[in-house]
Every structure is written in C-alpha cells, then in structure tokens.
From TrEMBL:
InterPro entries, A to Z: SLAC1/Mae1/Ssu1/TehA, Sulfite_efflux_TDT, Voltage-dep_anion_channel_sf
Bilayer topology annotation: Multi-pass membrane protein
Keywords: Cell membrane, Membrane, Transmembrane, Transmembrane helix, Transport
Record-given protein name: Tellurite resistance/C4-dicarboxylate transporter family protein
Transmembrane segments: 12-31, 37-57, 78-97, 103-127, 139-161, 173-198, 210-229, 241-263, 315-334
Cellular compartment(s): Cell membrane
Region (Disordered) location: 339-364
UniProt KW ATP-binding keyword: no
Organism whose genome encodes this protein: Amycolatopsis cynarae
Family: Belongs to the tellurite-resistance/dicarboxylate transporter (TDT) family.
Record-linked Gene3D superfamilies: Voltage-dependent anion channel
CDD domains: TDT_like_1
Length: 364
C-alpha cells in the first residue's frame, strides 16, 4: 500500500483492522431497513470479502510474527483486537438475515471463541503488566478502544438472537452476554469519563475510536431490543425491565452524540488537526450505523412509531457517512500506491507498524 512488501504490511497490521468489516456489515443492515436491497447486498459482499482477506492476513501474522501480535495484545491498544469478535458477530447476523444458518453458526462460534480468548487474555495481560507500564500511564492508557470489550460481548448477544430457530439455551446465553455487557459498559463509562474530565487531553488524542463510547451503548440497546422478541428471557428477567434499561441506554448514548460532534469540531477547528481520511474513521462509522439500527429496532420492539421513523432517518445518515469514508479510503489507497502522502509510524503501544495499512483499513 505504500510501496512496502506484502509481508511487511501483514507483519505490522493494525490490531483493530476489522473495524472496516464491522462498519460495513452494520451499514448493510441499515440499508436493508431502507429496503435498498442492492445496496445492502453489495455492502454485505464487501464486508464478507474484507473479512476473509483480513482473517487470512491476521492468521499469517500470528503464525509468522507472533511476537508482534502478542505485543499488540498487551499494549494500550490491545482491546482493538476485539474488532475481530464484533466483525465475526456482525457478519453472522447478516448471514442469518440472508438465511444461511450454517455460516451464521460458524461465524458465531468463531466470534465466541475470540471473545473468550481476547476478552480474558487482554485484561489479564494488562493486569500482569510485565513491563510495569501501567503504573506510568494510569488513566492515560484508557481510550475509546476499551469499549470494544463491551461491543464484543454484546455483538455475540445480537448475533445469537438473529436466528429465529436458535435453541432456548442460546437465547439464555444471549441474555447473559447482554447482562455482562451492561456491567462492563457502566464500569468503562466511569473510567472513560474520568480519563476525559480529570486528565489532560490534547486534540490529537480525541481520535475517532472515542465514538465507540456511544456505539457500545447503542449495541447494548440493540441486544435488548432483540431480547424483547423472545419469550424465554421473561422467565429470568421481565420484559418491562429489559425495555426500560434499553430506553435508558438509548437516551444516554443519544445524548453523547452532540458531545462527540462538538469534541470533533474542537479537535479539527480549535486544535488544528487536519480533517482528512484516516482508517480510525471506521470506528466512527460503526457507532453511527449501530445507533441507527438500534433506534429502529427498539422502536419496533416497543411499538414506538417515532423511534422507528428516527431510525430510518439515521440509516440514511449512516449510509452517507459510510460512503464518504469509503471514498476517502479509496483515494488514500490510490495515493499510497502511487508512493505519495505516506505517514510513518503507528500509535503508541501498537509497535512500529505501517501507516499505509493503518490508514487504509482502520483500527478499532
């Protein structure tokens, strides 16, 4: 992508590379809500192709450069690896919508395995902290990628509930995942706000992954809305409680949107950070698309017409944002291939990676 060998690009692949698949997959859902069948199918194919390509590249990287992979896993950006879990689950749900139950089951199993390994392994690596780096960083190491811990488990809940013929045990498992995600979201929201309000933050640090703060709440809303369509959870948790919690979360993550927009304006206008394509923008596209889908689904689940209408409007906005970012990616990719505009380096903790690969595919 920047004139380097394919092996070099794969070796330094960004840990959050599957953010592109997450964003494209959820916007495919949003397009289906708008009955844009051809657009939805095209996005579905693009997300699937990206998933296969990135899965192969990640497997090659793990087999050939395991040290680089493990260094990412125990770095401040380690939670970005959970984009693999969310991408697997989002695609699983999309295959369920297409009637491909077999592929749904395989992707759901991959996502669940990934969450078990990464969802425990990453925090264990940070807690063990062999380099004692955590003592120096403190709250400064907390950023938007940490909310992918929530997105990962909630995406499994949503995907499990996409298949109407799923066994009751899987529905109960989805309820447990939803509950785990809620608790994690509350804990991480407290950490994230403490980081922003009590520690110095520069405009350059307010990167697009902070939108995952909102996206983690939105996918929790979507999981709750999906649960309301099943009778089994009522035996453990009343539907009224699920609906109430989902509405509270929807209100909070909707409240966050103007704040995130204002911070983005401050970053680019007040802080002087250039407004140009960066792969991190896929971490903004996913929350925008997720909020649109969650709003509409919560409206359907609670028979609230204005939420359904709002979700449709947001779906158009998500499709527009995806288009702009995709065009920026294509343009940046073309410039990189021509040997122009390459920016060296990677974010702290991610190793000495390839900037072209990071900008093109993105990170969590």
């Amino acid at each position: 992508m920047t004139g380097r060998s394919t092996a070099g690009v794969v070796r330094d692949l960004d840990p959050g590379v599957f953010a592109f698949v997450m964003a494209t997959g959820i916007v495919s859902f949003a397009a289906s809500v708008l009955r844009l069948t051809v657009v939805s199918a095209a996005l579905f194919v693009l997300a699937s192709a990206g998933y296969v390509l990135l899965l192969a590249a990640s497997a090659w990287r793990f087999a050939r450069w395991r040290g680089h992979f493990l260094a990412d896993a125990v770095s401040p950006r380690g939670f970005a690896l959970l984009t693999f879990v969310a991408a697997s689950a989002v695609l699983a749900g999309r295959f369920a919508l297409a009637g491909a139950a077999g592929v749904w089951a395989v992707l759901l199993a991959l996502g669940a395995l990934g969450w078990l390994v990464l969802g425990y392994g990453i925090p264990l690596g940070l807690i063990a902290d062999p380099g004692r780096r955590r003592r120096r960083w403190g709250l400064d190491l907390v950023d938007g990628t940490w909310f992918l811990w929530v997105v990962g488990v909630q995406s499994l809940a949503v995907a499990a509930l996409e298949e109407s013929r799923a066994p009751a045990a899987l529905t109960a498992g989805a309820l447990v995942c939803w509950a785990i995600g809620l608790v994690l979201y509350l804990l991480l929201a407290a950490l994230g706000l403490a980081r922003l309000l009590t520690r110095p933050v520069t405009p350059a640090e307010l990167t697009a992954p902070y939108w995952v703060f909102m996206g983690a709440g939105a996918i929790s809303v979507l999981a709750g809305a999906r649960l309301l369509a099943f009778p089994e959870p009522a035996r453990l948790v009343p539907h009224a409680l699920v609906a109430g919690v989902s509405l509270l979360l929807w209100s909070f993550c909707t409240w966050l949107i103007p704040l995130l927009v204002a911070l983005g304006v401050w970053r680019h206008r007040g802080g002087g950070v250039p407004l140009r394509y960066d792969g991190e923008l896929w971490s903004m596209v996913f929350p925008v698309g997720m909020h649109a889908v969650a709003t509409g689904q919560l409206g359907h689940a609670t028979a609230t017409g204005w939420l359904v209408a709002l979700g449709r409007g947001e779906a158009w906005a998500a499709l527009a944002v995806w288009t702009l970012v995709f065009l920026g990616m294509v343009r940046a990719w073309g410039v990189d291939r021509a040997g122009k505009g390459a920016r060296p380096g990677r974010s702290a903790g991610a190793g000495s990676g390839d900037a072209g690969a990071r900008r093109t595919w993105g990170r969590g």
